[in-house]
Amino acid sequence: MDDRRTVKVSKYIAKHLRHQPERIGLVLDEAGWVEIDTLIAAAAAHGFRFTREELDHVVAHNDKRRFAIDGTRIRASQGHTVEVDLGLPEAAPPPYLYHGTVARNLDAIRAEGLRPMTRHDVHLSADRETATRVGARRGRPVVLAVDAGAMYDDGHVFRVSANGVWLTQGVPPRYLRFPESH
């Protein structure tokens, strides 16, 4: 499977497991799971065909580990805009986590902090490199440090997804450290 096909199948699956399952007639369970055969059949019925082997390749080779398989079921690891309960337990974060963004968002972030926007949670990275890659998807990246240890001590809840993305409901401005050049 070539890289272009891998990306195309991955984006299609992500769109329908995270944001628009109803568009192809999928019904996710309360935790976001759907039978793999049901996903493949629904996609084919809506003009996008892929095989189980292609799906397995996408899951195994996705650098962000966006998907989880449990037996005959699949779900997105995080990033949903549809209502799901991933059942992730609370976890104590490392002292600092990181968030990648772009300069045009900094004024709003300084004023309001990090908000989940259309998602259920704010996504944070355990390292600067990952946050840089995330921010680079929208332009020249700016990486913010989040004083996660202080947030946790102040009662904020953190969870970590199966693929290592840290999730929290929001990050108030006082816990953010901005780069000096911005």
From TrEMBL:
A Pfam family of this chain: PTS_2-RNA
GO molecular function, one term: NAD+ poly-ADP-ribosyltransferase activity
EC assignment: 2.7.1.-
GO terms under biological process: tRNA splicing, via endonucleolytic cleavage and ligation
Transferase is among the record's keywords: yes
Enzyme type, top EC level: transferase
Keywords: NAD, Transferase
Highest taxon of source: Bacteria
Main function: Removes the 2'-phosphate from RNA via an intermediate in which the phosphate is ADP-ribosylated by NAD followed by a presumed transesterification to release the RNA and generate ADP-ribose 1''-2''-cyclic phosphate (APPR>P). May function as an ADP-ribosylase.
Sequence similarity: Belongs to the KptA/TPT1 family.
PANTHER family in the cross-refs: PUTATIVE PHOSPHOTRANSFERASE, TRNA 2'-PHOSPHOTRANSFERASE 1
NCBIfam families associated with the record: PRK00819.1-4
Protein name per UniProt: Probable RNA 2'-phosphotransferase
Species this protein is from: Streptomyces cadmiisoli
